[in-house]
Design brief:
By secondary structure, the protein is of the alpha+beta class. It contains nine helices and five strands. α9 links the parallel β3 (about 170-175) and β4. The radius of gyration is 21 Å and the shape is elongated.
């Protein structure tokens, strides 16, 4: 039975309009994106199969082009649409982050960094450079590593902070292992960066460790 034959309050589009997007399951959201199913399977059935195939919604959204194009019901056009949706979300979060005080609205910064870093298969080290009013100047990936580690050089971080004329910054990196707890190496690195940046009067306001859908803030954990 196709979706059009379902009761009205069970159809994803009608359900979204009546109750809001948050009321939909991952499969229902993906079904709206797909719009149609394939022979013998509704869009929701196909969405469930795709979520099983990729291991969840976030992994599907971050999949490589070849993986998307080879999956049933997808292809180059859907890959392009998916990447456009992801980029729109990232730009919207970036606008939120840059429009206010990073200290008074840390959630916007965290959402942006989480979207950038969650489910990456390798470690990346980022910095959000801020002006004297704590407004974001630029977010920039500074170093890229392997599955388990990234080499970070304080001198290069200082150079980038000076290049942006930053008054302060927020650091962030991901743990592909899925364990957000900062390691001893993370703590030592953060202290080394604080000391190096203090020499040029740039403050480290926070260091986020992103792991999957979660994360740890050094500032909130009392580690700064």
């Amino acid at each position: 039975m196709g979706i059009k034959d379902w009761p009205a309050d069970e159809r994803p589009r009608e359900k979204l309009l009546e109750r809001g997007a948050a009321s939909l399951t991952d499969a229902e959201l993906l079904a709206l994106f797909l719009r149609t199913g394939v022979a013998g399977r509704s869009a929701v059935d196909l969405a469930r199969e795709l979520l099983d195939r990729f291991g969840g919604l976030s992994r599907l959204c971050l999949a490589e082009r070849d993986q998307i194009c080879e999956a049933p019901g997808l292809g180059p056009a859907k890959y392009a649409q998916l990447k456009a949706v992801m980029e729109m979300a990232a730009r919207a979060l970036k606008e939120d982050m840059k429009s206010g005080d990073a200290l008074s609205s840390p959630a916007a910064v965290r959402r942006y960094l989480s979207l950038l870093l969650k489910d990456k298969p390798h470690e990346e080290f980022w910095a959000v450079f801020l002006d004297a009013q704590n407004r974001a100047i630029q977010a920039e990936m500074l170093f890229r590593g392997t599955l388990t580690q990234t080499s970070v050089y304080p001198r290069e971080v200082v150079k980038r902070a000076l290049a942006h004329n930053a008054a302060s910054l927020i650091l962030a990196h991901n743990h592909p292992s899925g364990v957000a707890e900062p390691s001893q190496a993370d703590r030592l690195l953060t202290q080394a960066l604080r000391q190096a940046l203090a020499l040029v009067e740039v403050r480290v306001l926070d260091h986020f460790v992103v792991a999957g859908a979660g994360g740890v803030s050094f500032a909130e954990a009392g580690l700064l």
